[in-house]
Write a structure and sequence with these properties.
12 helices, alpha/beta, 10-stranded mixed beta sheet, Alpha/beta-hydrolase, Rossmann fold, 447 residues
Length: 447
């Protein structure tokens, strides 16, 4: 690994650690804010009314109950308007070009004139489930739209801790259904599931994995077209998308798997999470009211498959669309290895890539390095092939090592030796260490 990159990782880790002890409301105030779009990108902001999708929240709650053991505590979420933005490549302008002062309908029409393929990417941003918004990931959605010659819909789901599990899942499912079955007055026409690729990074990629499990849970009822969800009064099915493309996906909310410890020196994450540290400064939104032991969910739900998809039984990963995973040499890599192996074992198609010596979401942190360009290009290429030639996608697991001249890819033999029972046992053991967080005990932060 280049010493300069290593030094940059260490410097970023120290900066991130200091930022992590800022109250959550202030972190949201900085990160979850829309900003004007600049440069060669079209952004059209939209809102789909909650009333368009009847039974949406109930379908998610039913899936939570069906996949759980009955002991999990969770709040029943309300249906909210689905908010997000369409993102596409804007040709013929410089990097400094300001966002045009025209209405969102006109921006969408202009976006579609620059679209050259059928690819529609439903993108779910990361941010530990309590920070971020579509604007924070525009470099990624704009790049994917440009390279696929398609478009992205980036969903602005509700954030924790104000909105606990499974609220965000209701929004992500609602966004997917709004692409398939647009409400009256929408800018877009109905999108075929064969053209949609689900994508996201980090905790956003987790939400995509959970969405897949919800769709899987709805499949038996779809045989009689009774998912419990109605659009404009008519029952609708919820098909799988054309593909799934996930970067640095989180699959274990307890962070108990071996790579979390083994790759700690190379990565950016902390255990326990800073917001669970007794030195963390409380504010109006955290600790929650009533207090709980995780920003996103109750302690009792930490090992639920819709919170930690790596805990899902292998049968739930059957008949999945083609899937793409990419990681650095990071703490969350076992999360992806376990899920990818489950999909492969059930006959699915998986492309899995690791990049030696690099941390979580390195392509976002260090976009100028060759590994980042390679990852973004591979990401877009997979999305394009899912919509155009899915039958030609073949499974492969590969690790990329950097040399002086280029990247060298070496096949990974076996993804993991961890079985279902071992994974669930490790998670349950880690869950017992969690405690309800009620506020800080000291004003000092030791760095």
């Amino acid at each position: 690994m280049d010493p300069q990159i290593t030094a940059a990782i260490h410097a970023f880790r120290e900066k991130l650690y200091k930022r992590s002890f800022i109250p959550l409301s202030k972190q949201q105030a900085v990160s979850a804010v829309d900003t004007p779009a600049k440069g060669p990108v079209w952004v059209s902001r939209v809102k789909f009314p909650a009333a368009h999708l009847e039974g949406l929240s109930r379908a998610v709650v039913d899936a939570v109950k069906e996949l759980g053991n009955g002991n999990e505590q969770f709040d029943i979420p309300h249906n909210l308007d689905i908010v997000g933005e369409w993102v596409g490549y804007r040709s013929g302008v410089s990097k400094a070009e300001p966002e045009p002062e025209i209405c969102d309908q006109q921006k969408y029409d202009c976006l579609m004139r620059d679209v050259g393929s059928e690819v529609t990417i439903l993108y779910v941003h990361g941010g530990a489930l309590y920070t971020g918004c579509p604007a924070t990931v525009r470099p990624a959605t704009a790049a994917l739209a440009k390279l696929t010659r398609g478009r992205c819909f980036s969903v602005d789901y509700r954030l924790s801790p104000q909105n606990s599990f499974p609220g965000a899942l209701v929004d992500v499912l609602g966004a997917y259904l709004s692409l398939l079955y647009p409400p009256p007055g929408s800018y877009h026409k109905a999108v075929s599931s064969y053209s949609i690729v689900l994508a996201g990074e980090s905790s956003g990629a987790y939400l995509v994995l959970a969405l897949l499990l919800i769709i899987q849970q709805l499949r038996p009822s779809q045989q009689i077209q009774d998912t419990g969800i109605k659009v404009s009064g008519s029952k609708v099915g919820v098909p799988f998308p054309a593909g799934v493309a996930l970067y640095a996906a989180e699959g274990d909310r307890t962070h108990c798997l071996p790579s979390y410890k083994n790759n700690a020196k190379l990565d950016l994450l902390q255990d326990p999470q800073p917001c669970l540290d007794d030195r963390f400064p409380p504010d109006a939104i955290w600790p929650s009211k009533p207090p709980r032991g995780d920003v996103f969910c109750e302690i009792s739900a930490l090992c639920h498959p819709l919170v930690s998809p790596a805990a899902a039984a292998s049968k739930y990963w059957s008949n999945m669309p083609p899937m793409w995973f990419a990681y650095g040499q990071e703490q969350l890599v076992d999360d992806g290895r376990i899920i990818a192996k489950q999909v492969l074992d059930r006959g699915g198609t998986v492309q899995f890539a690791e990049y030696e010596g690099l941390p979580h979401i390195f392509a976002f942190l260090f976009p100028a390095i060759p590994q980042s360009a390679h990852l973004i290009g591979s990401w877009a290429d997979f999305c394009l092939r899912c919509a155009q030639n899915p039958d030609e996608i073949e499974s492969i697991s590969i690790r990329y090592e950097a040399t002086d001249r280029n990247l060298v890819g070496k096949k990974i033999g076996r993804l993991t030796d961890l079985d279902e029972e071992t994974v669930r046992s490790l998670m349950q053991k880690k869950k017992k260490q969690y405690k309800v967080w009620t506020g800080k005990r000291s004003n000092k932060v030791c760095l």
